[in-house]
Every structure is written in C-alpha cells, then in structure tokens.
Design brief:
The structure is a homodimer of 418-residue chains.
Chain A: E1 5-11, H1 13-16, H2 24-34, E2 38-45, H3 49-62, E3 65-69, H4 80-88, E4 92-94, H5 96-110, H6 116-120, E5 123-125, E6 129-131, E7 140-145, E8 148-153, H7 157-175, E9 180-189, H8 193-199, H9 201-205, E10 211-218, E11 221-230, H10 233-251, E12 255-257, H11 263-274, E13 278-282, H12 288-294, E14 303-308, H13 312-317, H14 323-329, H15 334-348, E15 352-358, E16 373-380, E17 384-390, H16 395-416
Parallel strand pairs in A: 1-2, 1-3, 3-8, 13-14, 13-15
Antiparallel strand pairs in A: 4-5, 6-7, 7-8, 9-11, 9-12, 10-11, 15-16, 16-17
C-alpha cells in the first residue's frame, strides 16, 4: 500500500516576517499523524500571488493532500480565495449556508452591523465543496484534482481546528485508504540527550528497520518517540508495546511518564489520583508554574492557589519569611525556599507546595550570586526539601527550566513520601 | 537593485509530527527582515535524506540565502552534517576551536565525562567556514555555491540565536548589497479586523504601490503594519513616518502603541514612567497575567506580586472577599472583581491592581453563567472599576483574551485617573 502523504501550506506575510509563530502547522501535523497520514513537508509563503501559486504547484508534486491555512480574512491582503478560484477554475457564487452563518454571527453574537467585506466571506468558487465554519465567518473549501485533495481553511486556530475535527479529518479517512501509523512516547527528565543516547545505544541499534526512534529535547525534558508504520495495525501496535516494554527498564530512574504528556499534566494527574492539592510560592518564575498547572481544565480539583512574591516585602509580610534571613542571606537561599513552602501551605491550606526563588537574568538584581542560580523547595505540612540549581543562558529559558524542574521535584517528593 | 531573498529550511521529524512548535523560524525571519532581507519561503522537512536534499535544491532556486536549522545533534537521527558534506563536497575534519569548545563545556560547565558522540560534534566538512557555538557543542557551517549562501545551525534556539547575532547576520550584510526595508507598526485593541479595515479604507486605498499594509490579529489585539522597501533609506523612512502620522488620527481611540510591542510591555513602561507598581489577583487566568508582566526583565521595578485565588476559600481568607457575596452571587460577579482589587492592594501594598474572575471552560464549574463570562476589575487605593466580558470558544483562547483585555483596562484606568 502506498503511503498517503500531506503537505501543509501556510499563507501570510506575518509568518515570513516572523510577527506570528505558526502554531497551526503543529496542530494539523499532530492530527494527520494520528490518522496515519505522513506530513512530508510544511511550507510557508507570503501574501503574494505568484509565490502561493508556485508553492501549490510544488507541494502537489510532493503530497497527496495539501492543507492550506490563512489568507481568507475580509481584508485586501487576503488573496487565497481568488487564487484558488483561478487555480481550480469555476465561478464565484454565494453559499447560502455560509451567508446564513455570517448573518447569524453578526446579529446574535457580535451584535454589530455587518460590512460588505463580511458578506463577501460567504462567496466561494462553485468548483469546491464548502466547509462550514462553526467558529467564525470565513468558510473553508475542499477541492479535488487528479486524485489529490486541496483544502483551504482560515488561519484563526480555533476556526481551523473546528473544520479539521468536524469535517476534514473524517472526510480524508473516507477518501484515502490509510496506512496504520503508531507512536510510543516516553517522557524523561533530568538527563541530557547525549547521555540518554549512550545509555540506550544497544536498544536503538537493534530496532527493526521500519521502526524509528526520535529524541525530542525541550526545556529539561526529553521525549523519546518510537514510530512505526504499516498495514497490519495489530502487529504494529503489539510490536511497539514490546519495544516500549524493553525500553522501560533502561530509563526507569528518569522516566516521568510512558506517554506523550506534559510535566504539568503528570503532576496534576498524580495529585488528582491521591485527592491532594498543591499551591505555589513563586518569586523568579512570576506565576508561570501556576499558569502551567491551571492550563489543565481539571485544575480546580488539585490546585489551591499561589502567591507570586516578587517584592521582598511580600515574601516577608504575606508568606512569613524570616526578616533576618532575608537581610543576612538575601532572597535566593535554602532557608527562603523552605520558608516559602511552609508559608504558602499555611496561607492557602494546601496539602503540598512548590516554592522557587532565583535569578532569571539578564542581570542578577544586585544579589551576590550568578544569573541562573535557583533554589527550589517542595514539601507538605510535615516535611520540606530544598535544592540549589544552576541554569544558564536567557531569562525565558531559565523560567521554563525552573518551572519544569520544580514540578518534577514536587512529583518525586509526592512519590517518595506517601 | 535586485532584492536579496532568503529561505528558512527547518529539519526534524518533530516539526512534521507536530510535537514541537517552530519558534526558530519566526525569530530568524524577524532578524532577516530588519536587515533588509526578504524571507520568501519557509520550509520544514523531516530527518529523511532525500527530502532534505530535494528541499535544499528547491529552496536554492527560490532564494539567495538558505538558513538551515536542526539536525546537528549528537544522536543517530541527526543527518544534516553528513548530508551537507556530500552536497557541497569535501572531507570531514576536526575543527580545533570547536573541539576546544566541546571539551570546555564538558569540563567546566557540565562537569561530566564526554562521550564519543560529543567529540564527533567538532567534525565539519573542510568546504565550509566554521561558525563557533558560544552556547553549546555543535558548531555551525557556512557554505557558498554559485553566489548563494547556505548556513547550517543547531535547532536549539539560544544556540542558533547566538550564531545569527554574532556571525551570520553581520557576514550576510557584508556579503550582499541589501535593499533598505522598513516597517511601522501600530498596536490597536478593542476593535475587530474588519471594522478596522472599514475605518481606514480610504487610507489603505491611497497607499503608494511600494508600501504594503498588513493586519495581524492576535487575541484581542490587531497589529497594523506598514512595510516599504527600496534603495533610498532616508526617503523610505520619511515616507513611512508620514503615513504613520496620517494613520494615527484615524485610530487614536483604539491605539495602544505606535510600535511593535506587547501589551505587557506597554503597561510595564507606563508604570515605570510613573514610578508606580501593580499587583494582580487572578482566579480564572491562574497567574498568566503575572507571568506576562514578569517576562519583562525590568518587572521588579513595577510589579509587586500576585495572589492566584483559584480556590474560593483563598478569595475569602487571603483577599478578604465578603463570604456572603460569594455565597449569594457566586465567584463570577462585579462585587468579587472589585473586592479582589481592593484585597490584593491591601495585602501586597501596590499602587494599582488588576483582578479577574471568570469561567474559562470547557465547563462552567457549576456556576449559573455561560463559559466565557469574565469580570475584570482594575483600580487603585481610591477607586475601583469592574466590567463584564463575554469571551467564547476554548480555554486557552479565553485565558489569553482575558489577560490582554485586563491589562488594557488597567492601562486605560491609569491614563484616565492621573
């Protein structure tokens, strides 16, 4: 069976001048992958007629499916629709369902008068199948040409995601006979990519030819991903289960989860399973750990609250850190990390707490320690542990590294003290 | 003068299966743009020999410069270096400076024994100019072929950024005679893209042919960007200044800043200018506003702290919200938003405070209000204002929209009450 391949084509000057980060392509790639469609290429071009045309020609030689996002807005720089009408031929007609949708959005949701540009959003070439937009005004378009499929969708993430989930993915599965694709991911923390590779070298060298192993490092974590493709779904799944089981004892001590999840999800699930709650006292991470934990829709069951104690006075007055310790040892030390844990547990009455205090850079804020010095404290009502870390480089990376490391410390503390 | 164009080629399966979001391309595109190099295309391919080779062939027909990131790691799935050695010819040699760098990192920074795979990172084809890596082990490579330039850099963001800033950008400016490119960005809030377009239609229709206007919407904000390219830098800068001045009165009421900055930077700068401080009391945003404000390296001068009052009890005990109000009206109402502002100002002694309480979804947490209902409060020690908002769609978007809207409310409150 021939492998079905896709290309993602993103349209918009904003991607080429770097004003916007392309999150759509990552989402689309994930969804296609789960469906057994291999993404062979991602291309981004600007709002320029010839460049879009040429990119469409090229991607159609590489892939069976081209998914296009962007360029469908109501403004003059959005030229995707007229281009596709020319590329695939046909006459522009008003789609009645799309028009009713635009009318409804303006009348009942936005409660504002409609503009002519919005009405034009309901126009489509009569050579496409219209994809209704449940979350916005611009409809999507499905074209077919010589056995290949080209789909155009808006660039607004939730609009595109709605179309993909409700229409495009199911229809692609109908239209193509798809190979089975399967992944197994192990999330590990506290070991570098090259040390991990050295440790599992024999495992990697003995992998069957149709199984690939990828190392995906990201801020203190590495995702180890096994991928296999083929026609016999049952055999592939079984083989990957076996390989995952062989890998597990080799990485047991650094394994966070045997699936592709985030550190915050692992910690949230652990807390939920134990019906316990956590709080944070954050100085240098400025609420980022709290933000990560509450990105989880179930967080109200395990997350109590946080104090972002940026100002030294807040550490002292709100979280009861000893004034003398602050004066003698500064804000970045073992004692402050420990007292922040105790202070926030006391204040918000959580079962556990994470505390961080450190210097994220670019300067060291007058403290007598290098940028990247961080003390992380974790604990419960009975016991508190604190450890010093040294991160490097830029502020954003230090904040990310501190957050991941602190959540992993909390996870290990919970597992070791139950 | 011919325009100098670049293509960005990103290598790695992780981008094609969507496990990683490509932030490198956005950063590179921004930097090239500032230097007068137009990014014509961005392409991502997997760790597959033929696909990388083909993409390199193709991008070299589209662009004068190809910047490659990724695939230089120490593990077996990283094949960029052998491929480039074959593509450009030459023999692999050990670069002494790169080797000294790898040795130094392991000896003095990581303080761990080195592996053979790490040693191999110092090997490069003798047909390239080596780019030293100040932030990691893998060196970069600069190749030239028929007047075109191909640069290979690691995929780790801070390593790539170091090479670009210290070596690649200066050398590209030497190597090519570059056109002048200039942008003017206006950041607006509180108006939709199509209404904005309608309002400035005449301005847009009368723009000179070599000036482009782009609308870049992002979570409650729209960036309006004017771009011009040409040989006479002074004339172009002056023309854009004039156009920006014509645009300003048309958007005065919704203009946040006449430059390309973030809402949090605008608010931080305003507070710094006034030597005032802000705090936040966050329920539904879970610390995200606090995180955004503290991403600014200068935040310690204007940011006091936050209480993330996720649990109802924290609202009551820590921030002194009236128990009766919570019982009778629930947590999402005007009174709670107002009392949170007062409570956090009292607790952390800031000049201003932002408070948010709402329902981010996917469910409404048992409250008698629809998902997306948010009350935002802003105020100082004398005065508090609160307003109800209705956002829609998914949790992540609601958190982003709430944060941006709340910071804009705070900005306007400060400007209106000074």
């Amino acid at each position: 069976m021939k492998e079905t391949t896709a290309a993602i084509l993103t349209i918009g000057d904003e991607l080429l001048i770097g004003q916007v980060i392309d999150t759509n392509s990552a989402w689309i790639a994930q969804e296609l992958n789960k469906s057994g469609i291999w993404v062979a290429r991602r291309t981004a071009v600007g709002d320029v007629w010839d460049e879009i045309w040429q990119a469409l020609d090229e991607t159609l030689t590489h892939a069976d499916i081209v998914l296009i996002t962007g360029g469908l807005g109501p403004t003059a720089d959005d030229i995707t629709k007229p281009l596709l009408a020319k590329y695939f031929g046909g006459t522009m007609i008003t789609d009645e369902k799309a028009l009713a949708n635009v009318n409804n959005i303006f009348k009942n949701i936005l409660k504002r008068p409609m503009l002519e540009a919005n009405l034009k959003q309901a126009e489509v070439p009569d050579t496409c199948t219209v994809i209704q937009n449940a979350n916005g005004t611009a409809p999507g378009m499905w074209f077919e040409k010589e056995g290949k499929v080209v789909v155009s969708m808006p660039g607004v993430p939730y609009e595109m995601q709605g179309m993909m989930t409700n229409y495009v993915l199911p229809k692609l599965k109908e239209h193509f006979t798809l190979q089975h694709i399967a992944h197994r991911t192990s999330l590990v923390a506290g070991i570098g990519e090259s040390f991990l590779a050295e440790r599992i070298k024999n495992f990697e060298n003995n992998l069957p030819a149709h199984v690939r192993l990828a190392y995906l490092p990201h801020y203190g974590l590495v995702r180890l991903r096994l991928t296999a493709k083929g026609e016999d779904a049952t055999a592939i799944e079984k083989q990957l289960d076996n390989l995952q089981a062989q890998l597990k004892p080799l990485i047991q001590d650094v394994l966070v989860a045997a699936q592709d999840v985030s550190m915050e999800t692992v910690l949230g699930t652990l807390l939920n399973d134990q019906k316990k709650t956590v709080a944070t006292a954050e100085s240098c991470t400025g609420g980022y750990i709290s933000h990560l934990l509450t990105a989880n829709p179930n967080s109200s069951s395990f997350f109590t609250g946080s104090v972002v104690c940026y100002d030294k006075k807040v550490k002292e007055t709100v979280l009861k850190v000893d004034k003398q310790v602050l004066e003698e040892k500064g804000t970045v030390c073992k004692e402050v990390a420990e007292q922040l844990v105790k202070g926030v547990i006391e204040l918000v009455n959580s079962d556990y707490a994470i505390a961080v205090t450190g210097l994220m850079g670019p300067d060291n804020g007058g403290e007598d320690k290098p940028v990247g010095t961080v003390w992380i404290g974790v604990g419960n009502k009975e016991k508190v542990e604190a450890q010093e870390f040294h991160f490097r480089y830029d502020r954003r990376r230090n904040i990310e590294m501190t957050a991941i490391t602190a959540m992993n410390k909390m996870r290990l503390f919970i597992l070791n003290n139950q």
